[in-house]
Amino acid sequence: MLPIAGVLLMIACINCISYFGIKGVYKRPVKYHTFEINGQPVNLFEHDKNGNLIPMPHTTINMEAVVSEIVRQLGNWNVQTGQGGVVTSSQGGFNFHVRGRRTIRAPDVSFTSKNVYRHLTQQQLWTFKGEPFTPTVVIEVSDTIKDSDTKKKNKVFDDLDEKFKSEYLAVGTSVQIDGGDTLPGFTLDVKMIKDIISQKSRPTEASKKPESRFSCPKCDNHFTDNYSFIKHFERSHICD
Predict the structure, then answer these.
(1) pTM score, two decimals?
(2) What is the CATH code of the structural domain delimited by 2-202?
(3) Are 127 and 28 in contact (CB under 8 A)?
(4) Which strands make up the sheet holding 137-143, listed edge to edge?
């Protein structure tokens, strides 16, 4: 768990733990959509025992911006390194097998490896009625200013395997969070998160000096901005 400028990141490798912090136990509806699996209609909404829809709490724009930034960085790593996995946010619920019973959890950010995702059944993909499975990594973001929020997330982390370590770093500490063997080559750019929290912004393309024309090292295409080059490189030389 890493407190960074008012935000607590809880990162856990599912290979090492049996439980993880959550932002409330809520079963999240996916889409207004009806379809069938094996000839049986599937309801994508989750209801309580009385048939009422289970509500989803809202987060502040600052908290959601931090979550979105982590999703973006993890998603970029997933594409740029050719992992072929799946990155989801807190709308993505997972059917866990916790303490002998099924439990729906929705981590703020998760990564599911290609090997796991490609072997999921239609029941697992579109309902919570298939066999329980877990993502490879889950990340929770908490507002350290709100003591009750932090205590709630710390409490559910009490059931973590002893292999999972908690680190507490003072605000202002310069850190790099890398994915180790679980997310090889991934490093979370914490400065981007600090910029979001402090409401600072990096220079936009329009405010920068015009970039000179440069070539793709893999082919004969030429570019004048980094975004077009990156999109070309991902599409033509990574995602083939």
Answers:
(1) 0.61
(2) 3.90.1570
(3) no
(4) 2-4, 7-13, 137-143, 109-112, 86-89
